[in-house]
Design goal:
Length: about 190
Amino acid sequence: MNTRTTTATASLVAAALLLTACTGLSRTAAPDAKATPEGAGTSGGASANSASGSAGRFEVGENARNGSLVVKVRRVHEVDAIAVVGGTKSPGAGARYVALEIVVHNGTKAGLELTCPPHIADSLVDDQGRRYDVIDGLDGIPGNPQCDERLRPGAKRAMMLAYRVPKSAKIAAWEFADSGREPSTVALASSAAQ
């Protein structure tokens, strides 16, 4: 195992440990043994449930395809605060964070920005169809790529997404899309609002 792989894995584990989990939404997939940080040696195409590359419906732990992107949601959970460089970020009164641990495989022909706009088009969706955008400052979450650190074509990268949602929202799904396509949907477990 090279130093970059070890450092990236340690950073991701540290970020997960710094998050303070609370009750409610929690869904974990089996570990992805093939998920490697960007540049750690991936090749060829990725397997996915939808060979056509069109929008589809997927579950946590499955390789969800949309166009040339393949994303696996490894874990989704509610958190009281998000660990960021220099401290923690609180959601404020009446809100909570929902964190998604994902692995992105870039099957496009160009580098892909993961943490700063323009990044993957994505939304967290509640049971009423309301969509929530990812928080600003994803590059400040330990283990996430920095702004302008592009994911090379054919490479994979593990990272964490975070969304600020009302405490009463019942999260149902996560949507993402390759540019200009209808989104693919990953169903997420939801609990009653606390």
